[in-house]
């Protein structure tokens, strides 16, 4: 066993994959919950074996840091979005712990500071205006754009999983969307500024770019593309995320842009998950997380490519701890063994789940995994965000080519809706 340990902050979603992989290297892991993950709905119960920052340390960062020092913590992982800020701070304060640029760390989790940092570094980004928390003074320039026939996107400065992200095309809709963010506690239980962002002009495609960074540079792990639609209420509903081939022409352009984003945000170590829109304007950052891709995505990436952000990070930690020798030559890019997609479940209207979908879906061709989160007899609202979809469930589907994958994904979506009835 190593004489050094790793702390995982808020190990939920994809973050639950870390302990067993690190155990395989003989590395001890310590788990820490924060109430931010509970408030935001990322978890609903305590993590088995985890301490709680608020309950066990009285929300005292000093006590937590002392505890980490006593246990020789030499690496810290953000197990999900709620843990990013605390993870970043601990990395900076723990001796010999790799960390990010300590200048203006908020640029890695506060989207207002994030887009300001991109502009300052000369990285192309969408025009973004902010309304501070508890404020409601909508910029007149934004209203003028709407009256000129343009659409805008409103999102919280601190958020995740498309929660409270709205497409608006009238001044009244804009005011309501801004007030819903600035006048409420928000996903993480504290006030958030509202960002009013230029809508990327059509035709456009949204990509997820997943990377891993070390002091030697940034590595591309995979690129996937989102298929989604906009509901009648202006919410972005994700249908699926499908993996792109590593040699797809767009992957190189997205990778170059992603590396510029990482440099502008001061990312020096660890995984990053980026959502990037691209089209006539070229790549533009939409969202960013200084942590691994969520919803279990790295596990499927590993099955399709033989690597993932989480597998790469655990390998890197083992190298740092002297347990594994660094690879003499780091492979660049990736190749898919087959086509794959994560189908995200959704419903158009409030509906009650009848139960029994998992067994039928698991028997469909190409379905390798079904995670049915909906509970029999429970009523669910119309899907408005990715968090709503995850609350219903998802399926991992594979096929030999894109035509077959499209057919199989459509069949899954059709079958799953048969198990919901109007409430």
UniProtKB/TrEMBL annotation:
Keywords: ATP-binding, Ligase, Nucleotide-binding
Domain of life: Bacteria
Keyword GTP-binding: no
Gene3D superfamilies in UniProt: ATP-grasp fold, B domain
Record-annotated ATP-grasp domain positions: 115-318
Cross-referenced Pfam families: ATP-grasp_4
The keyword Glycoprotein belongs to this UniProt entry's keyword annotation: no
Entries under InterPro entries matching the protein: ATP-dep_AA_Ligase (IPR052032), ATP-grasp (IPR011761)
PANTHER family: ATP-GRASP ENZYME FSQD (PTHR43585:SF2), FUMIPYRROLE BIOSYNTHESIS PROTEIN C (PTHR43585)
Protein name (record): ATP-grasp domain-containing protein
The organism of origin for this protein: Nocardia implantans
């Amino acid at each position: 066993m190593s004489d050094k340990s790793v702390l995982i902050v808020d190990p939920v979603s994809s973050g639950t994959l870390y302990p067993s992989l690190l155990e395989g290297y003989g590395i001890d892991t310590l788990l820490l919950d924060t109430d931010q993950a509970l408030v935001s709905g990322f978890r609903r119960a305590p993590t088995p074996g985890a301490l709680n920052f608020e309950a066990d340390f009285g929300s005292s960062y000093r006590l937590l840091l002392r505890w980490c020092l006593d246990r020789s913590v030499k690496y810290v992982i953000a197990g999900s979005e709620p843990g990013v800020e605390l993870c970043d701070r601990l990395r900076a304060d723990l001796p010999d712990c790799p960390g990010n640029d300590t200048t203006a760390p908020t640029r890695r989790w506060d989207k207002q500071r994030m887009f300001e940092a991109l502009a300052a570094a000369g990285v192309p980004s969408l025009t973004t205006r902010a309304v501070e928390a508890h404020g409601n003074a909508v910029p007149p320039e934004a209203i003028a754009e709407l009256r000129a026939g343009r659409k805008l996107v409103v999102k919280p400065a601190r958020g995740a999983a498309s929660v409270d992200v709205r497409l608006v095309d009238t001044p009244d809709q804009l005011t309501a969307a801004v007030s819903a963010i600035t006048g409420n506690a928000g996903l993480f239980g504290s006030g958030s500024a509202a960002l009013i962002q230029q809508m990327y002009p059509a035709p456009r495609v949204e990509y997820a770019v997943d990377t891993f960074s070390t002091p030697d540079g940034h590595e591309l792990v995979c690129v996937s593309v989102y298929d989604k639609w906009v509901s009648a209420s202006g919410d972005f509903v994700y249908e699926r995320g499908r993996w792109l081939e590593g040699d797809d022409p767009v992957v190189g352009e997205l990778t170059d842009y992603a590396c510029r984003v990482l440099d502008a945000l001061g990312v020096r170590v660890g995984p990053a998950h980026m959502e990037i829109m691209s089209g006539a304007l070229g790549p533009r950052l939409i969202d960013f997380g200084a942590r691994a891709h969520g919803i279990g995505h790295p596990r499927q990436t590993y099955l399709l490519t033989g690597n993932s952000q989480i597998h790469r990070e655990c390998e890197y930690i083992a190298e740092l701890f002297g347990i594994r020798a660094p690879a003499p030559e780091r492979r660049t890019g990736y190749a898919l063994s087959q086509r794959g997609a994560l189908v995200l479940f959704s419903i158009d209207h409030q509906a009650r789940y009848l139960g029994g979908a998992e067994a039928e879906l698991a028997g469909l061709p190409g379905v390798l995994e079904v995670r049915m989160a909906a509970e029999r007899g429970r009523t669910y609202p119309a899907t408005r965000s990715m968090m709503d979809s995850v609350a219903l469930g998802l399926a991992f589907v594979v096929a030999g080519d894109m035509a077959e994958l499209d057919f199989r994904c459509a069949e899954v979506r059709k079958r799953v809706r048969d198990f919901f009835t109007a409430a």
